[in-house]
Amino acid sequence: MSAAILLVIGLVLMALGYFIYSKFIAEKIYRLDPDYRTPAHEFEDGIDFVPTNKFVLWGHHFTSVAGAAPIVGPAIAVIWGWAPAFLWVVFGTIFFAGVHDTGAIWASVRNRARSVGSLTGDVVGKRARSIFMIVIFLVLLMVNAVFAVVIANLMMSFPTAVVPVWGAIIVALIIGQLIYRRVLSLAVVSVLGVVALYAMIWIGPSVPLQMPAEVAGISGNAMWILLLFAYAAIASVLPVWVLLQPRDYINGLQLFVGLIVLYGAIVLLNPTMIAPMLNIDVPVGTPSMVPLLFVTIACGAISGFHGLVSSGTTSKQLNRETDARFVGYFGAIGEGGLALAAILVASAGFASFADWQAMYSAFGQGGVKAFVEGGAFIIHNGLGVPEVTAATLLTVMAALFAGTTMDTGLRLQRYIFQEWGEIYQQKWMTQPLPATLLAVGSCLLLAFGAGGADGSGGMIIWPLFGTTNQLLAGLTLLVITVMLVHLRRPMWFTLAPLCFLLVMTVVALLFQLRTFYEAGNWFLLGLDIVVLVAAVLVALECAAALKRHRALVASES
Fold first, then answer.
1. How far apart are CA 544 and CA 518, in angstroms?
2. Beta partners for 219?
């Protein structure tokens, strides 16, 4: 099968989803109002609430929700064959992710930009809110701790990427000043920023920076993790326009250009899909495709983390309510396009089937390594770019995606602690600095407390990320569905994805429960039980809340 043909099919279907289905959802279901006064205007403070150009906000949203997960998940899932991964990414993006992300922004904007976790208390009930906040905390803990490890590993393995990864922060600070001081037009600033980032990618291989194996008794990997959290802590308390918005915007453009380069190489080279369409000869120990496919690929099809970004930072910056369609749905399309690229390069970026089998000799292998090596192979042979430069480009893409997600994730975790302070009347927790220190401290406690001196503790609970993340997506869809019922609008466009996710999540948790028990992994077994109980309680809350609101609507008719 031709990778170029699959690329065209996938992009055309996603484009149709945006121009047709998202228009229907925005106008007929959510009924986005261009004249509605958004919280960005109502509570404008120049720090968190800032009315933002929709293209700049799209850059923030897209790069925040993308992270490394839409690369890692799809590049692992092709072990079952490229067809199941392709179908789930394309149709999941159109009918699940876009609806979920746009809906989360709309629900938050219509409720003073409150997070979907806080909003659950009013829409569903206090019990559901308690469950939701626990699930949110676990997801953010996993994302922040693990992405720090991912970025640190990338910089240890690819020292050529260090200059462009950290240089992007300097570029973002300059871009922020140029945009918000109105020194230059957005178009000129965009071009200058992208050129600067790609210049550093080109320079990177010439000035590789390798962290020493040990610094003051701390391993090089752990030192990178500490530096990343120090940076993220500072970034999370700065006004969004200073660093978060411009960094995400310019990274979004750079990453979009990177995808175009990768797509162009696929079209020109037109490699064959080396991986089987449906792999029936999977390695020993590979779990069943159903339901594990639907939690292995979360980001790229639908992800609960998107709901946190949509209702956490994006809703506070939305200039007009109608911008939610472009920012939310098209942001999901951008992530789906990245996941599609990951599937293609992890299936076609090998010289032979034997090479592909060597990469996928066990479940869980592939991931970022398959993306970087497979993509570099395709770019080198399709465009003639030196393979080391191509590998640097793709490594920087993965690191920047993970970095921008970590920036936003830590800010969201700070919001969670602040909301807990409000709920439980702990005034000191509502202040940005203490809440940020709690957020960083909890991540470092996991990274170093559970993982030891190398700081890899976050990886211990990562196997549960997919199921916990999809449970969170189900909770977000529950809030949106109940709001639609209350407003007497069609609910099936959100209820159907909600039911599908809950079923797949519960079954996947049961599969993992058995795996952890047989492996004697009691920590993950206990955590799995906690998440499983939360999933069952969510299902019961779904049924009770929907029944209650439908009865209320019927009585008012």
1. 35
2. 214
Taking the CA atoms of residue 398, residue 404, residue 406 and residue 408 in that order, the dihedral angle to the nearest 10 degrees is: -150
Q: Is the pLDDT of residue 334 over 70?
A: yes
- Distance (Å, rounded) from C-alpha 349 to C-alpha 375? 6
Rounded to an integer, what distance in angstroms lies between the CA atom of residue 174 and that of residue 168? 10
Q: Give counts: helices (H), strands (E), the chain.
A: 25, 2
Residue 318: strand pairing partners: 52
Whole-angstrom distance, CA of residue 418 vs CA of residue 97 = 28
In which residue are the tokens 């480009």 written? Answer: 393
Q: Structure pTM?
A: 0.87
Q: What is the mean pLDDT of residues 472-476?
A: 89
Beta carbons within 8 Å of 5's beta carbon, 6+ residues apart: none
Q: Maximum Cα–Cα distance for the chain, whole Å? A: 71
Is the pLDDT assigned to residue 189 strictly greater than 80?
yes
Q: Give 52's strand partners.
A: 318
Instruction: Report phi then psi at 361, rounded to 5.
Output: -80, -10
Element (H, E) at 218: strand 218-219
Q: Report how far residue 145's alpha carbon sits from residue 442's, in angstroms, rounded to the nearest whole number.
A: 9
Domain ranges for the chain, please list them. 3-460
- Does the pLDDT at position 77 exceed 90? yes
